[in-house]
Amino acid sequence: MTQFRESLSARGERWTASRGARILLIVLFVAAIRSTLISIAKPFWYDELCTVLVSRLPGAPAIWNALRQGADGQPLPYYMIVRFFQRFVPDDHLAARLPSILGLLATVTVTYFILAKRVSQLSALIGASFVLCTILAGYGCEARPYALLLACVSAAVFCWQRIDESMFWALLTAISLAAAVSVHYYAFLVWPAFILAELSVLAARRRLRWAAWLALAAGITPYLFLAPVLLEYRRNFAAHFSSLPSAMQVFYSHDWLFEVSAHWGWSFAVLVTVFLVTARPRAVRLGSQAHSGAGLASLPLEELILILTLLWLPAIAVLVVKLGHGGMTLRYMLPAVLGGALAVGCAIERAPAFWQKLLLLVLVVQFGAPGFSQVKSALTGSLLEQRRSAALEVANIESRAGDPGLPVVIADGLQYLPTLYYAPVDEKTRLFYVADPRAALQFSNAKSDTLDLTYVAQEQASLVQTWNYESFLAAHQRFILVASQDWDFQWLPARLVHDGYTLRFLSGGNGNSIFDVSLAPSHEPPVGMPAAQN
Hints:
This protein is an alpha/beta fold and 534 residues long. It has two domains: 20-376, no CATH class; 385-519, no CATH class. 62% of the residues lie in helices and 7% in strands. The protein is built from 25 helices and six strands. The chain has helices at 2-41, 46-55, 60-69, 76-88, 92-116, 121-132, 136-139, 146-161, 167-183, 191-205, 210-219, 222-237, 248-257, 264-278, 301-311, 313-323, 335-347, 353-368, 371-380, 385-400, 413-422, 437-443, 450-460, 469-475, 492-498; strands at residues 408-410, 431-435, 466-468, 478-484, 501-509, 512-519. It has a six-stranded mixed sheet with strand order 3-2-1-4-6-5, sandwiched between helices. Helix 3 (60-69) crosses helix 12 (222-237).
């Protein structure tokens, strides 16, 4: 009788695991379809086009030289990954974004298996699905390395969680961390989470896990090879980063990461932290020998500390980057999404099964429902409408520019690359960007020279047509200027008026104003443009 009951129990466990795996596959299928369709439909924006242009260079040496000049700010291995997919995937938008799609799917999958070792299959599915309802889902459809970064970090957590079982897991932990560093320089921000977790092992169990410490040390070694580019990039751009760390980022970063407003993200982080720290404190074990799916009782102290440190990574990031005088955007805090997903998976374990199932359904529907519009577009043949509209807008700009013999200068640095990319081949040679880092500091609202320095580097790498301000005006006494409504990174119109040029309004629409520029004794700003800043 006892053997019969044990047999039924074993079958039930296998059935539960099998059911969890099937539901996970459904979630991944929905995520893959939605992300793929969005990746094909959505036009590139500036940051993505930096990835596309650099990865198209002839080979690793050319990419390395372009990065040393400052053409973009990601590590070399990331561009080689994108370059690999560009060789085999015919659609350029999907090819550049496919690494991110795979990174998103890998993050969801690994998050599930991290949680499944400690909580029920249902709770693990909720935590994994939570990833798809954060800002990471958007970066899973972009040609930037953030989704890949999260995949590498989640893989490192998965392997570190099993590090006591075999040295093999220590090796994989080191490889995962090294991969994270190799796709994004700011991956080092996750190291404090692992260090604090290991210090808790040392303090609580009086045990120094040499395998874990060696893995952490080995994982950071790619910086030794990437240092020349990183130091050169810092030397070129550190003086006037476009985004600097601020204490306020600690309070509103969770709103952005978890796509909520009114400080609900920060409130969520506080509440889930308090719950995990106070709920059944005696049940949080000090070892890693806990069995799978035993609820909060199976959560080792070091894993709790790792999860909460990742969740509060924005505070660590702001402090570390501020001390290092570096740049900081909210995108660099994305590993906090993993901390949030793991925290949700652990916290929801104590909820009744009915509410867990309902929450899982809500998360999947919330993520998947918007995908119906992409499926409809694919079925009706209108999936590429956004890309066609982007190309049409460029054609409209050129048609409204008047004299086809005049060069067209795009004043907004964030707009120039998309305009150049979607312009007809025979019109690309007519489009220019005029760079002047000093003028960008003086005449733009952002007071940053990052964009102009990047364009100078991209011109040196033969990626774009960038002219120095004085050189362009010496060669062109008259030209067409396209100005956008966003004046943050747009300094050229104010500089031209300041220097005595006349901007004669030709036409407007779709957020752009087109001017015929010529030298004349006028210092009046054109309609809609702020007065020149001195």
